[in-house]
Amino acid sequence: MTGRGMGVHSDFDAIVIGAGLAGSSMAAVLAEKGWRTLLIDRNSSPRHKACGEFLSPEAAALWRSLGLDSRIAGLGGANIDSLLLTAAEGSSLEVPLPAPALGISRYRLDSALQEAAVYHGAELVHGCSVLQIRPKRNGYEVDIRGKSERTSIEARTVFGCWGRNAASSYAKQSRLPRSKADKPLCIGIKVHVEGLPQCSRVELYFFQGGYIGLSPVEEGRHNLAALVSGAFFDRCGRNTAGVLSEACRQNPALALRLEGGATVPGTEAGAYPVLVSKHTTAWGDVPHVGDAARVIPPLCGDGMAMALRSVAMCVELADRYLCGELSLEHWKKRYIRQMRRHGAGPAAWGRLLETVLCHPALSQAALRLGARMPGVAARLFRATRQ
């Protein structure tokens, strides 16, 4: 019963907070395993999100391991087989992907995953915020608020899947403070574009102040995603049109690529601030999954695969805990250890590459070097993966 109101059962085996990619996948797998699962989202329905909408080759195996591959295969995503990097002065480098990737909008992907959760037996509640989570002897009590009512629900387990920028007051309190070493605040912008020539590659265009990614998605459209500094965004009038105009002025190859294209109304989305994690926060009062645990540099292009990996790790341990095979303390220690072991290397390489490629002189030299030494470029690409 997708989108039902507050008329839910009073107790569950699992409550999943956040119905994005990580949360909906978690709820679908838990429900498929037979656990009474409640999936809560503060939004009234699926929505467009600031995201590169690129499912890396690594994601395919994870979909299969979670039993969700058939759902994804039927969504009409665009096949992607290479990556093209273009510096502001025109130097470029194309790197083949080690295996096919997929371009698909978050709107369609999140909708399908929520439907999968409901299909397997999870209850889905839209338009509700989590106010408080109180530990109890054998689980938790969760206070949630809808548009006109407030209620408390008990569960044996609770999962924080609220994404990179927690909206609820509880999620903000649960997450540990960011490191002071985090990079300056950035803004993420996304919009779909139609009318562009089709190709099977992800394209990244760099300029002073950020970069823009262009990736094919379903229905012959392209997803345009920008990551820019706050100073650049201010100079551009704090709007998408201004960002695109200045980016095209600095990078003529981008201007040429976007000729004849038109943005699709209703597909624009933004994210502020885009904070990249220095450390993993795998557990607060409850386990954190997906971007709630770690946000990697968007340039890595592996954020959704890393979110799915955290789902796979957490759901296996959670299932053993619910079956009585694992104590809560052992679950917590193992999950924290596994999450710390994954992602640190790719995140560090992603931060380094962002710094180099967003600097005009350095990006020109790096791409020319990569063109002369393709083996090095391929190894650097692999370094940003898990």
What is the element layout, followed by pairings?
Layout: E1 11-17, H1 21-32, E2 37-40, E3 54-55, H2 57-66, H3 69-73, E4 78-86, E5 92-103, H4 106-119, E6 123-125, E7 129-136, E8 139-145, E9 150-160, H5 169-174, E10 186-194, E11 201-207, E12 210-216, E13 222-229, H6 230-235, H7 240-250, H8 252-257, E14 262-263, E15 269-274, H9 303-322, H10 328-341, H11 344-357, H12 360-372, H13 374-383
Parallel strand pairs: 1-2, 1-9, 2-6, 4-11
Antiparallel strand pairs: 3-5, 4-5, 7-8, 8-9, 10-13, 10-14, 10-15, 11-12, 12-13
Keywords:
386 residues; FAD/NAD(P)-binding domain; 2 domains; nine-stranded mixed β-sheet; globular; FAD-bd; FAD binding; Geranylgeranyl_reductase; NAD(P)/FAD-dependent oxidoreductase; FAD/NAD-bd_sf
Compact description:
By secondary structure, the protein is of the alpha+beta class.
